[in-house]
Design goal:
This protein is of the alpha/beta class and 229 residues long. 36% of the residues lie in helices and 18% in strands. The protein is built from 8 helices and 9 strands. The strands form 3 sheets. It has a 5-stranded parallel beta sheet with strand order 2-1-6-5-7, with helices on both faces. The protein has a two-stranded antiparallel sheet with strand order 3-4. The longest helix is centred in the last third of the chain and has 19 residues, at 201-219. The two termini are 39 Å apart. Bound molecules: adenine. Adenine binds next to strand 5. Adenine is lined by residues 87-89, 115, 132-134, 136-138, 141, 144.
Length: 229
């Protein structure tokens, strides 16, 4: 099977692979389970200064990425039908379900815009789908792109061991992860809950579910309501 391909369009290609070159994602990259191409948007600038942005129409602070330059950068790499994502705080919030769907496909093309914005017309003209990784503003889309790509590649067959499947089930059931413990039996006066060392697997399972439900109820009322429904 062809590998899973991530293409990133950015003004800072030297940021990649960065953390994606380490640990399990990095091993998967080195072994060819997935591949990464970081293309410099500036390479598509037409003037001798390498201009990629300009002042906003209508006035205001900041600079806007030019539609023509970005469109050329997209056209240079968008030679297949992978989803074209634009990392943006105003996008659809990324979920584990979307990550799983992207991981099942052939890869992603990810555009990292500067956060002041990009010309709206290129979003429509190149059918970019805006995706957010949370309700806070990063200084650029690169770290968001890394988060999205990392979440996808850890699901690719062969990237993670057995531990991944368990963690996935836990989120897929709509609950937060239950607490975990390992030796020593006592740490600074705190002991491991007795049920976990008693050897009764049914009781362990029930305790974990109850704890997952408690944490979800306390911390994530939104997930809790969805779980109940
Ligand atoms: N770029 C800047 N902030 C972002 C966010 N929260 N999600 C995705 N891309 C972004």
């Amino acid at each position: 099977m062809a590998n899973w391909r991530a293409t990133v369009l950015t003004l800072f290609p030297e940021m990649f692979p960065g953390p994606l070159g380490m640990s399990l994602a990095g091993k998967g990259l080195a072994s060819g389970i997935w591949s990464l191409e970081a293309a410099n948007i500036r390479a598509q600038a037409v003037d001798k200064h390498g201009t990629v942005d300009d002042t906003p129409a209508g006035g205001g602070p900041g600079l806007i990425m030019k539609a023509d330059v970005l469109a050329r950068a997209i056209d240079a790499v968008a030679t297949d039908d992978r989803p074209r994502l634009l990392m943006s705080p105003r996008g659809t919030p990324l979920t584990q379900a979307r990550v799983a769907a992207l991981a099942k496909g052939s890869g992603v093309l990810v555009v990292c815009g500067r956060y002041e914005g990009i010309d709206e017309r290129v979003i429509a003209a190149r059918q970019l789908e805006e995706v957010s990784i949370g309700d806070y503003v990063l200084s650029g889309g690169e770290i968001a792109a890394m988060a999205l790509i990392d979440a996808c590649v850890r699901l690719l067959p062969g990237v993670m061991g057995k531990e991944a499947s368990g963690a996935e089930e836990s989120f897929a059931n709509g609950l937060l992860e239950y607490p975990q413990y390992t030796r020593p039996a006592a740490f600074e006066g705190r002991t491991i809950p007795e049920v976990l060392t008693g050897g009764d697997h049914a009781k362990v399972k029930a305790w974990r579910l109850a704890e997952a439900e408690r944490l979800t109820r306390e911390r994530r009322p939104d997930l809790w309501q969805a779980y109940l429904a």
